[in-house]
User: What shape does this take?
Amino acid sequence: MLSSTMMMRALLFVVILLAPATGLAASVEAGRSLVLSESPEGNVYLMGGDITVAAPIPADLHAAAGTVALTTPVAGDAALMGGTVVVGRPVAGDLRIFGGKVEVREAVTGDLFAIAGTVYVTASVGDAWAAGSDVTFSAGSRGSATAYGATVTLGGEFAEDVEVTATDTVVLLPGTVIRGKLRYNAPQEASIPASVTIDGGVEYTGTSYLPTAEEAQIFALAGILLFFLVRILAGLIAVGILAGLFPRFSQAVADEALSKNLMHFLLMTLLGFAIMVATPALVLILLVTFAGAAIAFIMLSAYVLLMMVAYCFAAVIAGALLARAIAKRSRVLWRDAVFGMLALSLVTFVPVAGWTVFLILFAASIGVIASLFYRFSFSEEEDDWSI
Assistant: This one.
């Protein structure tokens, strides 16, 4: 694994390669705790854990560190990056900052571009663009100003238009002067003190980032509808694949449920209800005993698998019933199972009767599958659906 010193040297090498031609005479320094106390001749590139710039910079300054403190003027542009960046002396050119917490305490002759968690600008700047959670301009700007944040605070004199987008509130300090127009987008209108002057007027766009009660109801209904559509589609795909892969077993389930008399269908339904109720109780009893825990987990897995398969074959029974009633056909096709699943899904929207029909077919499916499995496992006769 590369050491931190090697990584820092590699980063500095990249910085030098990307530097402009004038940077060939630049000063490049790196260190964990770096204090620049002697004024260099050209551009300066610094990287470290903590950086303090204490000597005047005659050209451009580029610094990246956990903490960057500028305590001396910069004659050119400055590009700073760090967890905490404090600009305590004037910058004659443009200032670009990326960080967690940014403070600009002295004037910036050029433009300001800042992205940080919190941005505090307490000195005059040229054109200003800032984005963060909390953005504060307390000394205005000599050009246009744009701010994005949760809370945006404006103060001082702004020479041109001001544009603000806030997800929470916009605050105008007393005595604020805006020579252009104030455009702001926020959930609620800002409280503008009487001492505030806005020559170009105010353009407010209200944006609520939380839905209204009516919108929430629409979203809830749309979500419920989407859930049911996805559930129906998943059921159609599952039963279509199952019936298509196992056509003989699907035919056997349909024949066992529908080809005999009504009493046989009722017996299969009662058997299915008994399995649904008795199996979880038996699993709980086995879990109490240490020796039966393994058997309980196997039985529980088989029970869950049976419920999933029975859900699909309940649609097979419903589709076979529709095929016999409408098409007068006893042979079960995969599309019959798909139509059966669609019919069952629509029937369940009927509050009481629909769920009653579904539970009866579901229980009958469980009973039929259990009966066929028992016959396949313990009967000496070979069924025509066996594999």
Notes: Residues 213-378 form one domain. The chain is about 40% helix and 30% strand. Helices lie at 4-18, 213-245, 247-258, 262-288, 293-327, 334-347, 353-378.
